[in-house]
Write a structure and sequence with these properties.
Distance between the termini: 36 Å
Strand order of the largest sheet: 1-2
Strand content: under 5%
Shape: flat
Radius of gyration: 16 Å
Structural class: mainly alpha
Helix content: 40-55%
Oligomer: single chain
Length: about 150
């Protein structure tokens, strides 16, 4: 992985090696005939403390909302749900990374995890690990910030 375990004692390292199969199951709300979920942008707008929040605060709030919208009632994601979420919400960072040893290491660690579910902390570590090894991060670093 990226060495996150060394920098955050007691945390698990994950990998995302193979793409998750497209989810065919319906969300609990759809199955129960409940209304559609509220879009993330509207959920963010409803958090008054973020009204004047920074871009970074809003980015982290968005990650938390995306996770919470997919998590089970205990606040966890299955491995399959995690991979599906990465494919649908994090594709720009993982696209083209499948053959990189670091990517394979991260995904293998997720696959080998003894618990079948991961919590928000482990999900965030997974996102950071995948971001650090991605080509997109290098592209972002090269964006001009001045004229």
């Amino acid at each position: 992985m990226c060495g996150c375990r060394a920098s955050v004692p007691g945390t698990k390292q994950y990998s995302v090696n193979q793409p998750a199969p497209a989810s065919t199951k319906k969300s609990p709300s759809a199955a129960a005939g409940m209304p559609k979920s509220i879009p993330i942008a509207k959920q963010l707008a409803s958090i008054k403390a973020l009204g004047k929040g920074s871009d970074l605060e809003k980015a982290f709030a968005t990650m938390a909302l995306v996770y919470n919208n997919s998590a089970d009632p205990e606040g966890k994601l299955s491995k399959a749900e995690t991979k599906s979420l990465l494919q649908t919400q994090f594709w720009g960072f993982i696209q083209g990374q499948e053959n990189k040893p670091k990517y394979q290491e991260i995904i293998s660690a997720l696959d080998e995890e003894s618990e079948n579910k991961i919590d928000f902390e482990d999900f965030m570590i997974l996102l950071v690990s995948l971001t650090l090894m991605s080509d997109l991060l290098q592209e972002i670093k090269n964006v001009k910030t001045t004229k």
